[in-house]
Write a structure and sequence with these properties.
By secondary structure, the protein is an alpha+beta fold. It has one domain: Gcn5-related N-acetyltransferase (GNAT) (Aminopeptidase, 3-Layer(aba) Sandwich). The protein has four helices and five strands. The protein has helices at about 10-25, 35-45, 95-105, 125-135, and strands at about 1-5, 50-55, 60-70, 80-85, 110-115. The termini are far apart.
Length: about 150
Amino acid sequence: MIREGTVQDITGLIELGKEAADLSPVYHGLEIDEQRVRRYVAMMIASKTHHVGVLEIDGRIEGALLAQISQMLWMKGRQAGDEFFYVRPAYAGHASALVGQFVEWAQSKPNVNLVGLSTSFGKNIEKTERFFESCGLKKIGGIFILNGDS
């Protein structure tokens, strides 16, 4: 079931985030601050400008899309974008429903002119790009990083 996240989901979201980070060539090995994550996700759940969508199957969080709305620096209006998007591989068929929930949420907010998703997590980038395109999004560039492993 795709639904809005609640504070009762935070522990499951942290477990999901740890799993995703372990798989990511970008975030693997970086320390997770669980207390900060708990506070931040609780704030996101209570906020009108943040989105926490979860995929729950048999009482377990199997995927999530966390996002926010921010002002655009140079343009009038706002943009919505993800901060975290991961679905366990066994439940990948539900990923488009999470995206759909996020897009519907973002488009329902006033003055949101742009809605975007990122492949910056770094796992299966080409596959993720094709998936986003199948959801109706257009590729407009890439993200380049420098981290301790670069």
